[in-house]
Amino acid sequence: MEKNIQSFANYCLQRFIQILVEKNRKLNIQVEPMHVTVQLEDEEDEDDRNDIEQLNLTLNYLKEFFQILNTYLLSRIMNIQTTKDQSIETISLMSIFSTTISNDFIELIREHLLNIIPNDFQYMEIFHSLLQTVNKFEKYLIEIKFFSSKQTTNILSSVVGNIEESIIKSRCRTYLNQSRELLQSNTNLNTSFKTIEIGDNEQIFQETQQEKERYQNQTSSNILSSNISLDELDANMFRFPRTTIVEHVYNYMAFVRKVLQEADHVDNYGAHLCATARNMMELFHVIYGNLREKKAQEFPYLTALHFNTYMYVAHECLLLGEEYYHLKNKTGDGQPITFVDYVAIFRNQAANLLKTQLDTQRDLLTSFIKEIGAFHSIADEGENQDRLKRAINKCTIQLENLSRNWRDVFSPHVYFKVLGYLCDHVSQLLIKETLSLEDIPEQECEIMVNVFTQWSTFLQNILVKDEISPGLNILARLAPNLTRFNELCLVLNSSLQTIVDRWFNGQGPLASQFTAFEVKQLIRALFQTSERRTAALAKIQ
Questions:
Q1: pLDDT tens for residues 362-404?
Q2: Do the Cβ atoms of 113 and 159 come closer than 8 Å?
Q3: What sections of 297-439 are H helices per DSSP?
Q4: How sure is the predictor about 293, in pLDDT bands with cuts at 50, 70 and 90?
Q5: Angle 530-531-532 (CA atoms, 0-180°, nearest 5)?
Q6: What distance in Å separates the CA atoms of residue 67 and residue 8, rounded to the nearest whole number?
Q7: Nearest-CA neighbor of 263 among 322, 316, 329, 340?
């Protein structure tokens, strides 16, 4: 008999109670003299009710269901005597029924109640009404002995706790779910997804002495101005240069700001919203890179775009803590909310992404130069001459393609830094190969001068003559081998006396780019043995 009651209890849980709660069905009970019919039907006006109202109705159905069970079956008792020597034991059917499913029943109701906690205070009244229904239902279950009177009071509704705090926590969970959905959108990235241009290249206005004094006299509530003198701090360091980033990441950071602004406006439990804002940044750190970095490494355009995006998020993390410093009164521990610990993380992700792409491009350009083979044989056959020209053309085409992909995406500083790095690498390879030659015949030298001049002209057009070029001084620092390569071209196309003049006792422009050993090596390769060459070599010290 006991096993039959247990099987019946599991049947009721699975075929009636769970379906009522999870499927939002309607309970229809018909009581006749000889039997009772219990049916579950589809709700006709289900769409007119929200989740809170629906659960309220479902609890009433459950109460009816338990009333029928208690009235016609479970209120009965059994007298059990296992052996003749033992006394008769009285057990109610309800106790067997309860022992079998009560824990699963409690978990089902608590979980469903937790999932429908509203995230808007406008539903606070009807949710409070629902909790009253839950408490009445629980009292009835204690009355019919489905719950023991010794159990914790409000075992079903205790999952909610403070209603106002629960609503804030529900709102936080909603924000995190929305954050996850936003980050997982556009997972199939290509070169046509939405981007947005942010930042500017204009310098901030020059502050007057009066303005500086006003900021310096502010109270220590401003962590930035209290610890750093504005005379030592360039305000432009907190401005973001003009770049192109992924649009939905821009929207994501606006979403983080929205959460922080809400934390600023709520009277209580703002600490939950502050913690949610940090959790949103952690979600970005974990999800965004895993979904996009592999694809971004395949295409130079995507590399630039996601480099900018990471740097933008890092920049926002640098500013958010100061902007919302006043939220320290709402963080719970009195400490200001900060995101500065994510700055290095996102900058490293950006740097690693760009480094991987630059390594790939550098290896590709290196392979083009290596295809030439030995420079000393380029004049022997026409094919060798064409091989040198083809290698330089390949480098030129590849860098032009990178320029088209990167020029309007990177900030000007980063654009010239990465492009200058690759151009500098090719120039360094050409210099290295030339310096390794022991003999450069006149015909071979003419071929090299023509091809090298073509490469030098390309460098001038793509780096120096660009309207957004930072200028020769900065380019010389970003790509030191460019000036060195131009000097090499002059040497290859100069007379012996001109080379000596450009050396100028170690004080001339040639001496600033090449060592005495390297210049002597070039002279020996370019000019045959003679008294003039010996005299020239003697002057290169």
A1: 999 999 988 876 565 555 555 666 788 888 999 999 999 999 9
A2: yes
A3: 300-323, 341-370, 382-406, 412-435
A4: confident
A5: 90
A6: 16
A7: 329
pLDDT, average across residues 264-290: 89
Tokens of 4: 């039959």
How buried is 187 (Cβ within 10 angstroms: 0-12 exposed, 13-18 middle, 19+ buried)?
Answer: exposed
CA atoms within 13 A on the CB side of 109: 25
Q: Which two tokens stand for residue 528?
A: 């045959």
Hunting for tokens 């010389």 — which residue is that? Answer: 476
Among 63, 327, 131, smallest CA distance to 221 is for 327
From 386, 359, 243, select the one nearest 300 (Cα to Cα).
359
86 burial via Cβ count (<10 Å: 0-12, 13-18, 19+): exposed
Q: Which amino acid is at 334?
A: G
How many Å is the maximal CA-CA distance in the chain?
133
Cβ count within 10 A of residue 12: 20
DSSP 51-65: HHHHHHHHHHHHHHH
User: Is residue 327 a contact partner of residue 270, using CB atoms and an 8 Å limit?
Assistant: yes
Where is pLDDT greater, at 208 or 292? 292
Residues 6+ apart with CB under 8 A from 312: 198, 199, 240, 243, 245, 249, 250, 253
Half-sphere exposure of 142 (CA within 13 A, CB side): 15
Report yes or no: 497 and 438 within 8 Å, Cβ to Cβ: no
CB 201 within 8 A of CB 178: no
When computed from its CA atoms, the radius of gyration of the chain, rounded to whole angstroms, is: 39
Quick check: pTM over 0.85?
no
Q: Which pair of structure tokens corresponds to residue 517?
A: 């050993």
| Separation between Cα atoms, residue 397 and residue 400, nearest integer Å | 5
CA–CA separation, 119 and 168 (whole Å): 6
CA distance 427 to 406: 21
The backbone torsions φ and ψ at residue 28, rounded to the nearest 5 degrees and listed phi first, read -125, 120
Q: Which of 419, 435, 396, 459 is nearest to 519 (CA)?
A: 435
